[in-house]
Amino acid sequence: MSIERSIDPNSTLSEIVRRYPAARGVFNAHGLDTCCGGGLPVAEAARRHGLDLAAGLGRQPWMTAAAARVAEDLVLPAGTTAQLLGESGWDHITLIARATGRLSLTAAETTMIERHGISCRARHRALGDAEALWQFLQLAAREHGEEILAVAARQVARQPALPPYIDRAAVDAIPEAPGVYLFYGEAAPPLYIGESRSMRSRVLQHLCSPAAWTRRVRRIEWQRTAGELGALLREASLVRELDPVFNRQLRRPRQFEPADWPHRGPLGILETDPARDATEVHVVDRWCYLGTASCDPEVAELLEAREPRFDYDHYRILARHLRKRGVRVVQLGY
Fold first, then answer.
1. Per-residue model confidence (pLDDT) at position 175
2. Which domain holds residue 132?
3. Of 206, 225, 242, which marks where a domain is finished?
4. I want to staple 128 with a disulfide (CB 3.0 to 4.6 A). Which of 44, 78, 122, 217 is the partner?
5. Do 9 and 88 belong to one domain?
6. What CATH number corresponds to the domain at position 221?
């Protein structure tokens, strides 16, 4: 039986220390007196010291930063979160903890909280938490409507858990658009490089997969492209340049003769991102990918500085793309 499951919050500090001597170090770390104050129930001792009971018992924190942001988005009226964070200087976890009564407030903090329509009369009590949460939900229902609130609650319930070092806000910032993403551990090189037409969804799939390497992820970088071709070409270039740890190396034939180049000269393959009203031109010459440009001067620069170097991965991507219908190309010439 684990210590966490067998400790009763109504047990005194002395009783817990006698049963579990190692608990003395946990209590002392949080300033809980196990000598003269050892007759107090652990819940009461935590209340008097302004501690969360989970911290007093040495358990996992009651809330993560990502969960606090979800709670804010779900229950706070629009604009309230930014105003409270700005006035108080609290972080997201502290905001929810103080607004729901898990942490005590000074008189000035109480006035500030109540000015935003939130009050909690019984601090550190379950009833007070419930009352504050009910007020949150009522405010949210009036602001957004009950139907939207219900949909948001169902969406939050389905949100996957992320690795401990990844902030939900960092993932939410990734656009649901074509591009490449790079997972980094504590040091270079990248752990993994990938591409997708919907980056955020694909990143979440990786982070919620059982693969052992995902627990080593500490940060995520991403680069948006105008379309899928740009993402594929960029991924192939980055994998060759940065040599990520967990990317599978593609098998390349020892001897390979590419098909004849069917164009008079260099070719520009166009991709457009309607959401950003942006167009990219992928410059190719005799199956050699020279680079991607976003304007005519950049195209000219790539053509002037071109040093065609054949790459099998680029060839495979380009040949497959040019066989599709509706591909937009421009003849660049010499």
1. 94
2. 65-156
3. 242
4. 122
5. no
6. 3.40.1440.10
Tens-place pLDDT, residues 219-258: 999 999 999 999 999 999 999 999 999 987 655 666 777 8
112 and 50 within one domain: no
Each residue's pLDDT tens digit, 24-61: 766 666 566 666 545 667 666 665 655 555 554 445 55
pTM: 0.55
262, part of any domain: no
Joined together, the tokens standing for residue 261 give 């180049």
Average pLDDT over residues 136-144: 78
**How many Å separate Cα 265 from the centre of its chain?**
44
219-224 vs 267-273, strand pairing mode: unpaired
pLDDT in tens, 258-291: 888 988 889 999 999 998 899 999 999 999 999 9
Out of 156, 177, 208, a domain closes at 156
182 shares a domain with 115: no
The total domain count for the chain is 4
Q: SS3 sequence, the chain?
A: CCHHHHCCCCCEHHHHHHHCCCHHHHHHHCCCCCCCCCCCEHHHHHHHCCCCHHHHCCCCCCCCHHHHHHHHHHHCCCCHHHHHHHHHCCCHHHHHHHHCCCCCCCHHHHHHHHHCCCCCCCCCCHHHHHHHHHHHHHHHHHHHCHHHHHHHHHHHHHCCCCCCCCCHHHHHCCCCCCEEEEEECCCCCCCEEEEECCHHHHHHHHHCCCCHHHHHCCEEEEEECCCHHHHHHHHHHHHHHHCCCCCCCCCCCCCCCCCCCCCCCCEEEEEEECCCCEEEEEEEECCEEEEEECCHHHHHHHHHCCCCCCCHHHHHHHHHHHCCCCCEEEECCC
> Does one domain contain both 91 and 27?
no
Q: Is residue 84 part of a domain?
A: yes
Task: Output 8 or 161, whichever has higher pLDDT.
Answer: 161
Residue 174 lies in a domain: yes
CB within 8 Å of 116: residues ≥ 6 apart:
80, 83, 84
